[in-house]
Structures are given as C-alpha cells and as structure tokens.
Write a sequence for this structure.
C-alpha cells in the first residue's frame, strides 16, 4: 500500500491500511495494533530528499546539487493523474519546453505543466498558473485540463 | 500454466437463486466456463465442452476444474433453522484472490478502513490470540481473537468487545465466527467465498448466516456491501499485486499471525495461483 493514500497526523504520515505512523526521517514511530511496542529501527519507509517550489513538492532519488527551477509569478493550481505516457501528454498539449516545464495554452491562458511519469502508463501533471489569475480563468484552466486528460486517454485506448 | 494444485479445489461460480437457463459466461483460474441454471434444479458448468463437477451449498453453485479429493467443506453452525442465511451477491475486485482472503483474515485494519463501524481509531490494539494449522482437518484456524467494535453488526446497538474465530477451509474461502449481539453464547457466521477469475481478478461472494430477526434483509446486505466496498479500495491498491509467499518480503507483527499461517499453508500445498514466490 502506497503511503500517498494515507493521512498526515501531527508530525507523522499515517498509512491508510493499518495506521502505521512514519516520521519525516522515514522511521516507523507507531504501530497502533501494538501500542506498547517500540517499533524496531529496521522498519523504515525510505524517505526521499524533497524541496518546495511554486506550491509544488519536488522529490529526488538523491539530493541534487541544485534547487528545483522556480517559475517567477506562477503558482500551482491543481494536479491530475493521466493514464498515459509522458510523451503522449506532451504531444497532446503541443507545449514548448521551458526549463523542464511544458508551456501550454489551456482555457485560453498561458500555463506551465510539470510532469512526473511515475509508471509506464501514469503521469502526474501539475498545472502552474499566473499568481494573478482570476477565479474565472482558474476554472477555465481546470476544465481544459480535464478535457486534455480525456483526449489523451481516449487516444491511448484507440491506439 | 494448466496444472497446479488449486485446480482440484472447489470454487463458487454463482448464486443458486440467480442462475440463468441460457447460461452465463465466466472465468475460473483463467479458463472460460459457462454456468447453466436449470428449471428442474440441476444446474451445470461447462468448460471447453467438458462438464465439470458441481455442488450446491451455502446458496451458491460450486465447481472445480480438476478432481477434488474431498467434498466441499461444511459449516454445521450455519444450518441452525433460526438463522437468516443471506446471499449478499457478488463484488468484482481487481486483486489476487489470495489477497482478498488475506484481507478478510486481518483485524488490525478495522479502525483505519472501517472507521467507526468495525473499529475505532481510539481502540486499535490487537491482543494476543491463538493460531494453528489443524492437520486433522487441514484448515487454518485463529481463535480467541478479541477486538473493540463501535458497531460490530447491523444488529449491534453500540460499542462492544467482539470475539472472533477465523477458519480457512479452502484456498480461496474463509469463514468468520463472531459474537452475535442479540444472542450471547452463539456465533454469527460470515463467509467470504472467492471465485478466482485470473491471478489478479476475482469475484467475491460474501455470505452470512446470522441470528437477526429484526433487521430487514436489504439492510443486512447493505451493511455487508458497505464493509466490502471499503475493503475493495484497499485491495485494488495493494503492492505487489500478487500475494508474496516469501517470508522475507514483508514485516509481520503479532497481529498478523493468521496471515502468516495462511501463507505458510498455501505454500505447503502449492496453492500459488495469485501468489508470487520470487521477490519482485
Ligand atoms: Fe476489511
């Protein structure tokens, strides 16, 4: 079970299945079924180095020698998981690459898409929009992102 | 893979009350089967022109692709005339059939997955219980399992400490006996009959035999479906998809002893359809 299905409880991440709690260092702090037990040090979920930028959490397998690229004036609007490959998503949005992000018009506005193809057929897409974007624009972008997801997934099924 | 020990076991393939005379296509261990109802009360199952053996029991039709060396297990407690026997129906789950059974044997997830129904986050402790593989019947048994439950059953008024017994009489079947709120001293029987469609797809047929003369049948079914749908969201997200039988793969605690015994028993019998033997 992925810990991303779980919940943040205090300073720990709680697994959705059996409630095991893990600290920021990855070590298991608590096994609720056995409250008196001090979890052995060998139980750890292997933490990754992380950084925050533009309202987005970045992770790396090993701590890189640079920080994530900051996109001035942009903020994260929302994320979506698309059941397709990274290449398929990039083809669909015909985005120009800009410092690791894909510059794309969505809902009539300029947006930046940052992507993580975490499985052969699953891409996490985070859409960054201008911090000054009014609510109506944000809604239009969000709707256009859903449409993009449907388009790419439909291609995938047709192929 | 066409020859493995699980071919000789019995599996549920439909509710006796829901069979169709025209036949219904299904799968069993990856092979195409057709399940036929019958107006004269003799349902049948066919697989590539071959007629398979059948048993009618617990409201379900059972069959086997091979030659079972023993009769389908019985649940004598369930025969009591005052019990309500509930055909819950079918839930299709994208998971290994063995994972579905193992999850059913696990109580430690109640507070987190069935929050405020079968468990409460304030009472997550699993106290020590007894697990054994009973060689004379060749079944896995867990007894003296106790757990605090906010609403143990549809018929339960408030929170109670429930006592459980678990029994695995067949590779994809598990029977749970639990304290019966309206009748202290008796056990409610809740069973999970799993039809393995493929190694990572199954049809789950929950079935119950309860002492409950107050709840409407629909409410009993809804209660069980609610619980099982909560389990489905967990089951479809488990990694790895197949049940690891290699003891080094996961970190069991004392609460997981039933699951440890179940895996050991599966391995001993080469019941490996839906299992992974090599780390991966
Ligand atoms: Fe459950």
């Amino acid at each position: 079970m992925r810990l991303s299905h779980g919940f943040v409880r205090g300073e720990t991440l709680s697994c959705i299945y059996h409630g095991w709690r893990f600290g920021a260092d990855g070590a298991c702090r608590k096994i609720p079924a056995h409250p008196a037990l001090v979890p052995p040090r060998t139980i750890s979920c292997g933490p990754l180095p992380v950084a925050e930028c533009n309202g987005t959490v970045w992770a790396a397998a090993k701590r890189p020698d640079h920080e994530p690229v900051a996109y001035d004036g942009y903020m994260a609007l929302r994320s979506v998981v698309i059941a397709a490959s990274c290449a398929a998503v990039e083809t669909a949005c015909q985005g120009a690459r800009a410092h690791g992000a894909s510059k794309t018009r969505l809902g009539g506005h300029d947006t930046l898409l940052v992507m993580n193809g975490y499985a052969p057929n699953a891409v996490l897409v985070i859409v960054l929009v201008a911090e000054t974007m009014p609510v109506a624009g944000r809604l239009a972008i969000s709707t256009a992102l859903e449409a993009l997801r449907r388009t790419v997934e439909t291609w995938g099924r047709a192929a | 893979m066409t020859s493995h020990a699980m071919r000789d076991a019995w599996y549920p393939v439909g509710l006796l009350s829901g069979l169709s005379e025209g036949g219904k296509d299904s799968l069993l261990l990856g092979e195409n089967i057709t399940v036929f109802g019958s107006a004269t009360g003799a349902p049948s199952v066919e697989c590539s022109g071959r007629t398979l053996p059948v048993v009618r029991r617990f409201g379900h039709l059972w069959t086997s692709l091979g030659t079972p060396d023993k009769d389908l297990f019985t649940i004598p407690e369930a025969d009591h005339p005052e019990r309500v026997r509930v055909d819950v129906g079918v839930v299709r789950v994208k998971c290994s059939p063995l994972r579905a059974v193992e999850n059913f044997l696990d109580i430690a997830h109640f507070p987190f997955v069935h929050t405020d129904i079968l468990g409460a986050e304030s009472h997550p402790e699993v106290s020590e219980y007894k697990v054994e593989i009973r060689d004379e019947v060749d079944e896995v048994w867990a007894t003296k399992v106790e757990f605090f439950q906010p609403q143990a059953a549809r018929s339960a008024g408030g929170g109670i400490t429930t006592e459980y017994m678990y029994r695995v009489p067949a590779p994809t079947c598990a029977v749970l006996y639990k304290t019966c709120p309206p009748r202290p001293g008796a056990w409610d029987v809740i069973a999970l009959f799993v039809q393995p469609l493929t190694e990572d797809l199954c049809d789950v047929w929950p079935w119950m035999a309860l002492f409950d003369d107050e709840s409407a049948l629909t409410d009993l079914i809804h209660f069980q479906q609610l619980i099982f749908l909560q389990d489905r969201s967990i089951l479809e997200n488990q990694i790895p998809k197949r049940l690891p039988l290699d003891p080094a793969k996961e970190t069991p605690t004392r609460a997981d002893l039933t699951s440890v015994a179940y895996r050991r028993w599966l391995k001993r019998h080469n019941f490996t359809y839906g299992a992974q033997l090599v780390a991966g």
Summary: The pocket of fe (ii) ion is lined by residues B 103, 109, 113-114, 231 (CB under 6 Å). The CA atoms of residues 96 and 127 of chain A lie 14 Å apart.
